Amino acid sequence: MRGLIAPERESPAEAAPSSETALVALLVRAARANDDYDTRQVAAIDAVVARRFEVGPFEIAALRRKAEALEAATGDTVHLTRAIKELVALEDRPALLRDLWAVILADGKRHDAENGMMRLVSNLLGLNDRDSAFARQRAEQDGGGAE
Predict the structure, then answer these.
(1) pTM score
(2) Could you count the other beta carbons within 10 Å of the beta carbon of residue 76?
(3) Helix axis angle, 112-124 relative to 129-141, nearest 10°?
(4) Which of 48, 77, 78, 126 is buried most, with the most CB atoms less than 10 Å from its CB?
(5) Cα–Cα–Cα angle for 19, 69, 51, rounded to 5 degrees
(6) Going by C-beta distance under 8 Å and a sequence separation of 6 or more, which residues neighbour residue 80?
(7) Longest dimension (CA), the chain
(8) What are the tens digits of pLDDT across the range 11-44?
(9) Distance in Å from the first CA to the final CA of the chain
(10) What residues in the chain have per-residue pLDDT under 50?
(11) Cα separation, 105 vs 95, whole angstroms
């Protein structure tokens, strides 16, 4: 009966996410692209969050938990990238691709699902496969270790 008269709450997928949460959710999506959310990838996400947003460990963990919930509730990558475009200028998006590749490569493996996701994300962010390849090479040079 309460459900009939109480106002419905928006689900996380319906509410407009903050740009920061959407960015971290995209990092989470990159880590989960091959259905293996590795602890090394979680650590890579935390390192990106610390560097990008200059926050401490408690804020990092809280933002990542919020982003994990958003990623799980968001079926379409388009919604995440739309919010990110408000936060990250076009000229800064290759660095975001590098961060995404760093998360993907943190487990030491590269999978077809991850490659496909990065092609999609590059396109949605207004970049191309070449930008993504350069970003991957930079991530590998910076310590990512996939083949």
Answers:
(1) 0.85
(2) 9
(3) 120
(4) 48
(5) 45
(6) 17, 22, 25, 26, 29, 70, 71, 74
(7) 59
(8) 444 556 788 999 999 999 999 999 989 999 999 9
(9) 57
(10) 1-13, 146-147
(11) 15
